[in-house]
Amino acid sequence: MEFQVFLSGKYDKGAALLSIMSGAGGQDAQDWATMLLRMYQRYADRQGFKTNILDQSFGEGVVEGRTGTKSVTLEIRGKYAYGYLRKESGVHRLVRISPFSAQSLRHTSFALVEVLPEISSAEEVEVKPEELSVEVCKASGPGGQNVNKRMTAVKITHLATKITVASQTERSLAQNKENAMKMLYAKLYQLKESQRNKELAQIKGKAVAIEWGSQIRSYVLHPYQLVKDVRTNVETSDTAGVLDGKLEELIEAEIKQK
After folding, report:
1. CB atoms within 10 A of CB 230
2. What is the pTM of this model?
3. Beta strand spans in 87-196 (E)
4. Comma-separated ranges of CATH 3.30.70.1660 domains in the chain
5. Helix H segments across the chain?
6. Cα–Cα distance, 188 to 210 (Å, whole number)
7. Which residue has the higher pLDDT, 214 or 30?
8. Which of 7, 41, 166, 230 could be a cystine partner for 155, CB 3.0 to 4.6 Å?
9. Whether CATH 3.40.50.620 fits 2-120+212-256
10. Which of the 8 DSSP states describes residue 209?
């Protein structure tokens, strides 16, 4: 009953669209984005949620079997998936010995996590066909190679806002287009809410926080082991567990925070 009170938002019961974008730092940052992707997939498995990668832009290099990721969007389906994950949005910071450094130097990497609710229909936002630019191309994999000989990947741009979404992981053009539209509805809804919140903040005379913000959590693997959430002050030395999806303590504290 307690969690039903905290998870009572409009879309908390539904699915989540979780995107990860690597920051500056080349291969280290791209590898960090891949590590975060695995972390959230493992967390979803622990919760009994279903996951599906809608789109992934690959980066450079392979470390311990992981291919670098420039950006990725993960669909997470399950009861209260969005409610549990929505406060994971923000900048995540990693400190470790770089596996790409010949001198074994310590490196700091950043990645942005963005969590949006899945908007099941166009009720919240009105989108007309003439407001969209739709491009169709072949799906590509790591290193840019084509992984599908047919034209099934879809890239959609909302002309008025310049918001662009893409989907390429499904084998059918129709399914990729449907997935891309899910992402577009979510991003347009987020933009609408952001504009509304800015208007309210101006009326109240409060400063508007920068949307991309500063880091919300640090993951330190060297010279000591520590994961700390800067908003709730929850910390743990079980870095391996956290990176393997053991996020329950961190997320529970986020949910209870006003």
Report:
1. 14
2. 0.84
3. 90-97, 106-117, 132-137, 153-158, 163-167
4. 2-120+212-256
5. 2-6, 26-47, 81-85, 173-204, 239-243, 248-256
6. 18
7. 30
8. 166
9. no
10. P
